[in-house]
Amino acid sequence: xxxxxTRFKHCxxxxxxxxxxSSTAPQLAEELAKITGEGRYKIVLDFTQLDxxxxxxxxxxxxxxxxxxxxxxxxxxxxxxxxxxxSVFDLAGFTSIFKIHTDVLxxxxxx
Length: 111
Known about the structure:
By secondary structure, this protein is α/β, with parallel strands linked by helices. The protein has helices spanning 25-37, 55-69, 83-92, 104-110, and strands spanning 2-7, 12-20, 42-46, 50-53, 75-79, 99-101. It is built from four helices and six strands.
């Protein structure tokens, strides 16, 4: 798994490439905690190059979403989900929890 973060004026875009499973989920959690630790709570996750996400990865996303939405501070948006990843989110019931956009530009524009 590879993580690239880009800081913009009003949000952070985190591009995740590869697989998020039980061995790589802590790395993603650490990166997202670093962003929220700096007081930045508007995050767009770019999943265009994501191949796989396990339940450990889903737990990291839910935890980050709760942290960002606490006290109405921000939000976590998902962008560019491949069809197989979108079906995982749909099966888990996460499509109603997360705001999902087709591309990063629309996600950044809506935050």
